[in-house]
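Exam prep: given the inputs below (a chain plus 2-OXO-4-methylpentanoic acid), describe the expected output before reading on.
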Amino acid sequence: MAELDWSSLGFKYRQTNRIIVSCFKDGEWSQPVASDDFDFHFSAFAGVFHYANSCFEGLKAFRGVDGKVRIFRPDENAKRIQRSGSHLDMAVPSEELFLDMCVRCVKENIEFLPPYGYGASMYLRPVLIGMNPQLGIASSKEVIFAVMCAPVGTYSGAKILTPATAVIARNYDRAAPNGTGQFKLSANYATSLHPYNMAHRQGFGELLFLDPSTHTKIDEFGSSNFLAIKGNSYVTPLSDSVLPSITNKTLQAVAADFGMKVEKRAVPVEELAEFDEVNACGTAVVITPVCKVFDKQRLEDEKAVKVYEIPSGDECGKVSRKLYDRIRAIQDGREEDTHGWNLILD
Ligand code: PLP
Ligand code: COI
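Solution:
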């Protein structure tokens, strides 16, 4: 077992034992290898360096209360990376290869899988990278598919379910209308780096993006989807510039199981004044409550034109906590996985 303080891992790079790598060349994927060399060696002309021929995934493995290892919904991540890679017109791994390499990554790094009881997990990061040399704008013919991992705690580094502030930056978009927001492309994250850095310097925890066509509706956070609770409703934006979050999909099913009404629809910004609870949701952030949303005309402006104070305030809202508890209990093997979401390792 690695010598780590499992209770304060945060979300950052840590060297583990091995990464799992397969290469697509001459029309086929090579047999995956477990490598302790974390450096890739390929051309400075590779498409990834110039044209961002790259996409990735994020999923988690958990050590259960029963000692078993569970990977949460990896089949969904496999399908999503296939959609992302196909949008880049590059070769994509089969679902079988994706699952095999994720399982192998967990096994090769098992001493970095946090023990049960710390609220921590092993984050798996599959990446698809275009590696052949090229000069003109083109899709990659040769691709590396790698799965690596890191033990993680909360994304912000704060205690679980600590509410965060968020800022709407109307003069920055994460995605373009008819763009790539619905795919998990590396390029989408490059777009948000500058406003993210500014928001963090200003002390905000999260950046909330609006729909890029009209800037009147909520899209999603830079790291995660938006979900709100209004009475007995679970409200989440329906937008083609938002990443289809597996966590959000899961929580919608859990909310429906709880007898809540699930509303996937356009969410006008002003509706922030009507929500009981607001959260970011995603693999890295799980559920992170939002206590205040600052609406700025320009992120550079000192003052927000409006500040929405979410009634749940400095606490995680009751409904959000119930959703959080249920999903975490399923991941930890404390409650029955009635939907069959976990892949249990032998
Ligand atoms: N939206 C964005 C922009 C993300 O980066 C993520 C993280 O993967 C999500 C949403 C949440 O997706 P998921 O729940 O599948 O991790
Ligand atoms: C994830 O939640 O898996 C993501 O990719 C988001 C990123 C901020 C780490």
